[in-house]
Amino acid sequence: MSFHLPADLLDRPTPYYLYDLNLLERTLHMLQQAAQAHNVQVHYALKANANLPVLERVQQAGFGADCVSGNEVQRALDAGFAPDHIVFAGVGKSDAEINLALTADIWCFNAESGQELEVLNELAGAQGRRARVALRVNPNVDAHTHHYITTGLDANKFGINLSDLPATVELLESLPHLELVGLHAHIGSQITNLSVFEQLSHKINELQTWLEDKGYQLPHLNVGGGLGINYDDPDTDPIPDFEAYFAAFGQHLHRRAGQQVHVELGRSVVAQCGTLVSRVLYVKQSQQTNFAILDAGMTELIRPALYGSHHHIQNVTSTAKTDKTYDVVGPICESSDTFGKGILLPETKRGDLIALRSAGAYGEVMSSEYNLREKTTPVYVG
């Protein structure tokens, strides 16, 4: 398959996010088949994309919701997710956010510190409830990805360090309004080397055995998400290999009888179905390079500026027979407002439409109004 812009969108004001709902539904179908084959419960990570048309299709496919803020919990409820299919993670949950989730009676809180457990116990007691919690442990497993999206090392702010786990488990025994139901770990994002998940499985196996020696039998294990996608060639790999991802845990995670395994996938579900469409404002030549200056910038897609991410860039309207290299940049008053340097494109002119691919995750949801830019309006096809 390859990307083509529908004819009725060629004259639409830019920039805008274009979502291919047919591809999303094919992706959800493949994910559903793989998850059922391995008896895994999927919680979709709303932080990747929280648009209602996307969430409604995820919910209809039978998946749960992984939330990292009170507003995400509310958005999941608004999109039709049942409270008992919602988990709430995050290193800094406010009292108001916790109370919202308690009142909704969500399925589980992924707790990241002893102090959070104490606060959660107090707030649950005030509501006359007993909150279900999973301990998010920091397994000190290197995901071998960008340091801004690595979350499982001792140096990261996330999770309970292994050295603090004994004291945390002891603390739990004094908190009557909490029920420990599982372990949770998430080591990072855009992981393409599946051996990392093998390492994570071995670490969880060790922790589970240690907890069993302490008298805890855990009905649930949450191994996080992190499965990467092909940003270089999205048309070759529009749907990730979910089967291989689940098999990595199936082969190495020591699952107890009746134990439920959960994953939290976001990027791999929605990234390839989204494209940022932009128009060339100017082509500027210098002694060193050609600049293709777009009407979209880091305010619409901050990932390249934030951590040097790569998105496949296409000129979808040029009919030129010759190619040139361009630095593809945005209009924002920041030197980091660059989508890619030395990009080979058909000879590009003012008014050409540019597609920045694989932008369905951490694209629109991270957009801003810096420079008083207006928010884009998404377009859905399929």
UniProtKB/TrEMBL annotation:
| GO terms, biological process | lysine biosynthetic process via diaminopimelate
Keywords attached to this Swiss-Prot or TrEMBL record, sorted alphabetically, are: Amino-acid biosynthesis, Decarboxylase, Lyase, Lysine biosynthesis, Pyridoxal phosphate
Cofactor or coenzyme needed? pyridoxal 5'-phosphate
**Amino-acid positions noted as binding substrate in the UniProt annotation, renumbered to this chain:** R267, R303, Y307, E334, Y362
Q: Which reaction does it catalyse?
A: meso-2,6-diaminopimelate + H(+) = L-lysine + CO2
Signal peptide positions are none
Q: Which residues form the Orn/DAP/Arg decarboxylase 2 N-terminal domain?
A: 26-271
Q: Where along the chain is the active site annotated?
A: C333
InterPro entries for the chain: Ala_racemase/Decarboxylase_C, DAP_deCOOHase_LysA, De-COase2_CS, De-COase2_N, De-COase2_pyr-phos_BS, Orn/DAP/Arg_de-COase, PLP-binding_barrel
Q: Respond yes or no to whether keyword Lyase is given for this record.
A: yes
What residues bear N6-(pyridoxal phosphate)lysine in this entry? K47
Q: Which SUPFAM superfamilies match?
A: Alanine racemase C-terminal domain-like, PLP-binding barrel
Q: What is its EC number?
A: 4.1.1.20
Which parts of the sequence bind pyridoxal 5'-phosphate?
A: G226, E264, L265, G266, R267, Y362
Pfam families xref list: Orn_Arg_deC_N
The metabolic or biological pathway listed in the UniProt record of this protein is: Amino-acid biosynthesis; L-lysine biosynthesis via DAP pathway; L-lysine from DL-2,6-diaminopimelate: step 1/1
> Which GO molecular function annotations are given, in alphabetical order?
diaminopimelate decarboxylase activity; pyridoxal phosphate binding
Recorded family membership: Belongs to the Orn/Lys/Arg decarboxylase class-II family. LysA subfamily.
Q: Which PANTHER family match?
A: DIAMINOPIMELATE DECARBOXYLASE, GROUP IV DECARBOXYLASE
User: What is annotated about its quaternary structure and interactions?
Assistant: Homodimer.
Q: What does this protein do?
A: Specifically catalyzes the decarboxylation of meso-diaminopimelate (meso-DAP) to L-lysine.
Q: What's the protein name?
A: Diaminopimelate decarboxylase
